[in-house]
Every structure is written in structure tokens, then in C-alpha cells.
Amino acid sequence: MRAAPIGVYYTPEKVIDFATIQAAITDNTPDGVSAALAAALMSYYFISQLGNKSTLGKFIESYVLGGCSEPWQGKVKTGATRFCEVGQKVCYR
Questions:
Q1: What is the pTM of this model?
Q2: Which is it for strands 89-92 and 83-86: parallel, antiparallel or unpaired?
Q3: Residue 42: predicted pLDDT
Q4: Is residue 41 within 8 Å of 55, Cβ to Cβ?
Q5: DSSP string, 2-59
Q6: What does DSSP assign to residue 66?
Q7: Residue 93 has what pLDDT?
């Protein structure tokens, strides 16, 4: 994800501002913006040493909607092409 380096900014508000701009350029959808915000805030959280991995979800949820502290259940939404390796070739479905 391209948003992770944005976590070097010095406040969560700056991280959110710049991650929103980045996501609007590359993934201009609500899910794309939320994912970029979560990725940038995650790197900010660890760079700033705000806590351990067990409290990361709660930190992200304080800025981004989406249940980041709950284990994921269900299908993952994606527009990506699925592929599998068959011998030396890659086949697309």
C-alpha cells in the first residue's frame, strides 16, 4: 500500500490529510480511502511507539470507521484478477 510511508508525519491529523490526498489520486472510493487511512495510521502508530499490536485496532478506530479491532469474517471485496500458478505458467481466471 502506498500510504504506509505517510505515517512519518508528526500528528495523526497530518497523516490523515496526506493519506486522504494520496488515496483520492489512486483509489478514489470510500473503501480505498479508509484502507489508505488505516495503513498510514498503522505506520504512524508504530513509528511513534504509541502501543503494542494488541491495541492498534482501537487506535485506528478512533480515526477511521470500519471495525479494525474485530477479527475479519466474510469475503474480501476485490476487483483484482485471481490467478494461480500451473507449473511454470500463470493462469488468470
A1: 0.73
A2: antiparallel
A3: 94
A4: no
A5: TTGGGGGSSSHHHHHHHHHHHHHHH--SHHHHHHHHHHHHHHHHHHTT---GGGHHHH
A6: S
A7: 38
Residue type, 53: K
Rounded Cα distance between 10 and 65, Å, is 22
Cα–Cα distance between 20 and 3 in angstroms, integer?
9
Neighbours of 5 (CB within 10 A): 14
pLDDT of residue 46: 96
* pLDDT block averages, 10 residues each, the chain of length 93: 88 94 87 90 96 91 78 66 44 38
56, 45 contact by CB (below 8 A): yes
Residues 6+ away with beta carbon under 8 Å from 40? 3, 4, 6, 7, 15, 16, 18, 19, 22
Of the candidates 38, 81, 40, 80, the residue with the CA atom closest to the CA atom of residue 61: 38
